[in-house]
Amino acid sequence: MRRAVTDYEMIKPGDKIAVGVSGGKDSLCLLEALSRYQKFSPIPFSIEAITIDMGLEGMDFEPVKEFCQKLGVNYTIRKTDIAQVVFEYRKEKNPCSLCAKMRRGALNNAAKELLCNKVALGHHSDDVVETFFLCLLYEGRVYCFSPVTYLDKTDLYLIRPFLYLPEREIKRYVYNNDVPVVESKCPADKHTSRQVVKDMLSDMYKKDHCLKQKLFTAIQNSGIEGFAVDNIKPLPPL
After folding, report:
1. pLDDT by residue (tens digit) across 179-217?
2. Nearest-angstrom CA–CA distance, 157 and 1
3. What is the pTM of this model?
4. Are 80 and 109 in contact (CB under 8 A)?
5. How far apart are alpha carbons 170 and 87 in whole angstroms?
6. In sequence order, which ranges of 17-166 are alpha helices (DSSP H)?
7. How far is Cα of residue 225 from the mean position of the Cα atoms in its chain?
8. How many other β-carbons are positioned within 10 Å of the β-carbon of residue 122?
């Protein structure tokens, strides 16, 4: 994480960073990592944890609240009716796109209200490769999210400090430590286009254990906006 933050200059002195905490493994690990990094970082910054409650039944964020108290991080929950809009009113056949857009909008609004200038998301290196193939196969375009993205409408920066971190390391940390992951109650979970791409890539990785690293490096060197970094060193095997 420190390397990604340095390579892409994700954090500047005085930043107030809103960490989007869904309750999943990625966002909770990112919150803890930033909280730990904050204590010895040469760059002073502060963090806020924000959860967008989509209104899905059975989602209990009390363990997340206790986790934030343990870390000494201020925690905010914003209740919404996103789930009802997506699944009941709109009855979306492919709900992920609309859901993500509404959640991101709610998160950005909450960040602005808390006077944050940046929003940190828990996307990892596997997400980079999967997003690239999602856009290629389902949208017919070469694209991937950027490590740092400026949103001119809200005057916020999105940063992705886990950019270099493979998902397996997050899973390993969650398994070995007391991270209170909240199980998703989304009816579309495991039945998405992303899951199709994830399964496809998983089969490919079994045949070539270096493939994930090759794909990530190719994306980094592809000229996709925001990814290019001068004099960047090769990553260790993902």
Report:
1. 999 987 777 777 788 889 999 999 999 999 899 999 998
2. 17
3. 0.90
4. no
5. 30
6. 25-40, 62-71, 82-83, 96-113, 125-134
7. 18
8. 23
